[in-house]
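Researcher: Sequence recovery benchmark, item below. Answer with residues only.
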């Protein structure tokens, strides 16, 4: 029976307490999200920076630009000042016709059909029985020239 009395006493204590809710208030805050300048105090260690019209750059020039209409585009390409390389004189070449695909270490590779090789490598390839030297007319006819 003493348990019921303890429980009733606890309930009476809770009911007698003031459980009303108070809305929190913030100093310097005005309804609508604006700051009331009269009550707002700023912290002394607050750092302020003035706005600058300069855009931050990395020091590199960009190939992008903005037109007067605000459209992003690319700058015109500049002419290259590099010198052109002249072609090296080619070694004398020979046309060979092969009836097989063959790879020869130190000499090279030929495929079935016409192959253009240097004279030095042609001397090696002509020792094989499946390769013969092709005439210029034969090669021109095969390539449609």
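Model:
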């Amino acid at each position: 029976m003493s348990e019921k009395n303890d429980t009733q006493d606890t309930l009476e204590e809770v009911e007698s307490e003031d459980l009303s809710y108070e809305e929190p208030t913030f100093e310097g805050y005005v309804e609508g999200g604006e700051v009331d300048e009269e009550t707002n105090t700023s912290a002394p260690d607050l750092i302020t920076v003035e706005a600058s019209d300069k855009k931050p750059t990395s020091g590199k020039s960009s190939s992008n630009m903005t037109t007067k209409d605000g459209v992003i585009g690319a700058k015109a390409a500049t002419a290259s000042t590099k010198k052109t390389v002249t072609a090296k004189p080619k070694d004398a070449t020979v046309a060979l016709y092969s009836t097989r695909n063959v790879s020869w270490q130190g000499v090279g590779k030929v495929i079935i059909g016409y192959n253009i090789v240097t004279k030095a490598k042609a001397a090696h390839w002509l020792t094989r029985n499946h390769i013969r030297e092709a005439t210029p007319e034969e090669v021109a006819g095969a390539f449609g020239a």
